[in-house]
User: Which sequence fits this backbone?
């Protein structure tokens, strides 16, 4: 089985998932999930997909392009016959959820190339994913936070910000196209319960797809950043994530 993690806006393939406080570093995908699954005698390959999601950089990558690259990376990791049939579970944070959904939409549109890959996707774990867009006040404050990058001569890539605005065309299109094709998936959704600064970035109404095959629950003590970070001592906050991953994996394996 393969678990594929996809980070969000201004994220990083490792840092997004790392609690990284002054006392300990804990990347739960590396330090906790394998041990949790091994107790059920399950071995999983865990991949973390990285792409340039910076607001200010030289990149002009779009969600569609990030999705294309994700699909091709996965094909590259699944060349052997025994690899092609491995079930896939996606774990996505924020913008990463839009990338995952768009990847599946594009895979459905090119089913001849991605048919085996599509058949292998069994479930998705969404963490603070703005299916309906995010609070515009949060994104409006980002340019001021990014001024140091401008002084370094880096140009802005506003595409991701526009895609994340509440009820943006990208959010609406991707969610609409995804829900019609997601009926066979198990979907577990977690949404924020604490403000980031003064704002709930992705509220419950935006974080949920309202599908019959989706289970959506709040994650206690989590804001938009910490919803995907769990230190080694945070057992109570991590427990619902652990249970959701195990549920998706066991179902994906047909047990």
Assistant:
């Amino acid at each position: 089985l393969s678990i594929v993690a996809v980070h969000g806006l201004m994220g990083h393939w490792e840092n997004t998932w790392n609690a990284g406080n002054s006392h300990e570093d804990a990347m739960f995908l590396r330090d906790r999930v394998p041990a949790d699954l091994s107790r059920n005698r399950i071995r999983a390959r865990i991949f973390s997909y990285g792409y340039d999601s910076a607001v200010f950089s030289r990149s002009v990558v779009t969600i569609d392009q990030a999705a294309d690259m994700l699909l091709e990376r996965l094909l590259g990791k699944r060349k052997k016959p025994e690899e092609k049939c491995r079930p896939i579970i996606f774990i996505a944070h924020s913008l990463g959820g839009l990338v995952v959904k768009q990847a599946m939409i594009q895979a459905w549109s090119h089913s001849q190339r991605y048919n085996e890959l599509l058949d292998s996707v069994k479930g998705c774990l969404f963490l603070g994913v703005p299916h309906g867009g995010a609070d515009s006040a949060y994104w409006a404050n980002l340019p001021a936070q990014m001024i140091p990058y401008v002084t370094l001569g880096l140009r802005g890539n506003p595409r991701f910000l526009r895609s994340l605005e509440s009820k943006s065309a990208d959010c609406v299109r991707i969610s609409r196209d995804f829900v019609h094709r997601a009926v066979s998936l198990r979907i577990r959704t977690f949404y924020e319960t604490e403000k980031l600064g003064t704002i709930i970035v992705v509220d419950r109404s935006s974080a949920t797809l309202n599908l019959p095959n989706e289970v959506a629950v709040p994650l206690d003590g989590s804001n938009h950043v910490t919803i995907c970070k769990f230190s080694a001592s945070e057992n109570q906050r991590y427990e619902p994530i652990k249970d959701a991953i195990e549920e998706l994996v066991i179902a994906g394996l047909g047990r």
Remarks:
- Residues 2-252 form a domain with the Rossmann fold fold (CATH 3.40.50.1820).
- The beta strands are 2-6, 45-49, 88-93, 121-127, 186-191, 214-218.
- Confidence is low (pLDDT under 50) at residues 143-156.
- The radius of gyration is 17 Å.
